[in-house]
Amino acid sequence: MAKIGTSELAKHFDMDVAHGAGLTPPPGFKLPDYSVYHPGKVPGKDGFSIDGNGCGHQTAGFYHFTEYISPLRDAEEFAQIEKYPIAGNAGWSDETMRKAGQEALAQGRPAGIFVGHMYENAWQVRGYEPFLEDLLVQREWAELLLDRFCENNLRAAVAAAKAGYDYIATGDDVANQNAMMFSPDMWRTVMKPRWAKVIAAARAIKPDIHVWYHSDGNIRDILDDIVEIGITILNPVQPECMDPVAIRRRFGKHLAFDGCVGTQTTFPFGTTDDMRRVVRALAESLQAGNGGLMLSPTHVLEPEVPIANIEVFFEECDRVSAEICGRGKRA
Question: What's the rounded Cα separation, in Å, for the pair 296 and 282?
Fold first, then answer.
C-alpha cells in the first residue's frame, strides 16, 4: 500500500467489488468457550488465537500463515464429536443482510455473500488426517460435523435468496495440484448431496441466484457434478492444474470463470510483458467477448508479487475489455 500511495486499493484499481452482509447473532451472543480444547494456550499470547469454529492458530511470524490446531484432533469417542459446540446460526437476524443487499442495488453493485465452507471447516475442527480416516472407517463421525456446518450454510443461503442477493459463494479445497484429495466417488457420496441441498434451497426461493464455487487444484473429475447441482461460477480455474481453454470449451455454456491468472507462476515470477501476454491470451482463447469471464488472481497475492505486475494486470484487463468486449472499463 505504501508503494502504491493509498490504502484504498479497490478504488485505486477500480475493482469490481460485490457488497453484502451475513446473518447477525442476537445481542449478547457469545461464542462457546473453546479454550478448554487448547490447554496451556492463551489467546492473544505468543502468536496464538482461536477462530469462530474453535480451531487454534499458531503463527510463526511469517505473514498470514498459521499452523492449525484442531480441537477434536484427539477425540476417541463419538460422544466427543456429538458434544462439540459448533456455533449455530438458527434464529439469527437477516436485517443487516437485507440492508446491505439494498445498498448494493442502489450503488449498481452485485449483492453477494460467502455462505461458508463444509469439508474445510469439518477437517479443521477434527484434524486433517483424522477426518480423512473418519471418512473411511467411521463415516458417521465425519458426516455429523459436515451436517452441522451444512445446516449453517443452508440457513445463510436461504436468507440471502430471500433478501434478493445476486449470488451466494461456497466452496471447499478438495483437490491438490494433480488430483482430488480423495476419490471423486467419495466427494459424490459425502459432499455433493449436501451442497446440492444448500443450492436447491436457495433456488427454491430465487431461481436465478448464481452460485460461486471455489476449490484450488485439479477438480476436473467433479466438474460435471458441480454443474449438475447448479453451480454457475467456477473459481479459481488454476492454470497450473487445469487447462482453462479445455474446460471452457466443454463447460462454457454452464460455467462462468473467476480466476485463471496464476499466483504460482505469472503473478510472482512473470515480467510485466508476461502479464500482458497472459491476460490477452486468456481473454482471446476464452472468448471474453461472449461473457462469463472474470480474470483475477487464482488466490491471495503473496508478498513476493511485484507491484508492477499487479498494476499491469489491471491495465491490460481494461485494455482487452475495451478491445475485445467493446467496453471502456471492466465489466
Answer: 11
Q: What is the pLDDT of residues 123-144, one digit of tens each?
A: 999 999 999 999 999 999 999 9
Number of Cα atoms under 13 Å in the Cβ half of residue 12: 11
Gap between the Cα atoms of 165 and 131, Å rounded: 33
In this predicted model, what pLDDT tens digit does every residue of 209-246 receive, in sequence order?
Answer: 999 999 999 999 999 999 999 999 999 999 999 999 99
Q: What is the largest CA-CA distance in the chain?
A: 62
Domain membership of residue 224 (yes or no) is yes
N- to C-terminal Cα distance for the chain? 25
Sorted by sequence, the CB contacts under 8 Å of residue 290 that are 6+ apart come out as 252
Asked if 172 and 194 touch (Cβ cutoff 8 Å), the reply is no
For residue 201, the enclosing domain spans 79-235
For residue 126, is it within any domain? yes
Task: Write the CATH number for 122.
Answer: 3.20.20.210
Cell 458441480 belongs to: 226
Is 169 within the bounds of a domain? yes
